[in-house]
Amino acid sequence: MKRFIILTGVCLCLQILAQGQNNRDSAKYYYDKSQYTKALPFAQQSFDAVKDLNNDDTAYIDASYTLAIVYGALARNDSAMVYYVKACDGAKKQYGERSQKYGRYLVDIATLYTQSRNLPEAERLYQKAISILKEIDVPYKNDYAFALIQLAVFYSSIGNLNRAEELYLTAGNVAPKEPLEKKTEYVLALHELGALYEKMGDYRRQETMQVQVLGMLKEMYGEQHSAYASALNNLALLYQRNHNLEKADSMFRISLEIKRQANGENSAAYIMVLNNVGVINTEMGRFETAEKYLKENVEIAYKNGGEETLQYPFCLNSLARMYALSNRVEMAEPLFEKALAIYNKLGVERNATRLKLLYNMARMLYADNF
After folding, report:
1. How far is CA 349 from CA 65, 82, 123, 170, in A?
2. What is the CB neighbour count within 10 angstroms for residue 57?
């Protein structure tokens, strides 16, 4: 009888772990497609299945990390921090405080501190992670390169652009350039270097970096992959900034179709590119076309998390801006106000898109009051 009870307990435990793994696989599937609201319930169920295990159990660590990255993608940073800390503490106990996994998780926590503007703690954790990952003896230093890239992003965010450039170049030297499947951090370093050159106002070098990234992603994944579409979208943004609007519009539309096929119309990636199509048509004065795309985008964003996500007010802002620029201020104002209320409810006062919204409101609605 005792043996039967033990076997029953073992079978039940295995069943729970299997269910947790299935939910985690589903969460990762939707996460990889940028369908974060669909990923969340599976990630939560995956964690709930293993939450009573010891926190140094590998299933507990993996489930915590999966839930953390989904919350992070949804910009629910307080919740993300809770589960990143759980995963990090578990990794420290299971693998050791000089382990690769512990060092990698520290980078994620540091990134959240950067976003919440706890800059001293963010810098401390980045440096700690780098000291760990630099010493790991592995054939491919992807995690070390990633930590350098994130520290560079940190320095870029506080205006130390020269230090950021040094770190991006170092990451590019550290990151493996072959085989192709190990090249992701090298491509990321070049992508972020392009973004840095944009901040510096060096658009020639920015374009060089972005064209190079586009070519690499084509080689790695082909022209129908979501990552290639993202690079195409980024290059289109550069052409938009340089007022080559027709070329940018064409590239946005190609990117949009790839995102539709690869990620689906309910994905955050599709919503972002669709917004860009609407915005550039606004800039070209094609207000009827812009309205069609931007209204569609607001509807999609509402169906996929709505007021619980940052994308919904972001899309409202773009639609409101289009109405204001086409002299329909009476339609713009309630949308601006609604978007601002959602940002305030989400508690993201310093979010860049909220600050852009305030700028649009001040310039387009209240300029005569100043």
Report:
1. 26, 21, 22, 34
2. 16
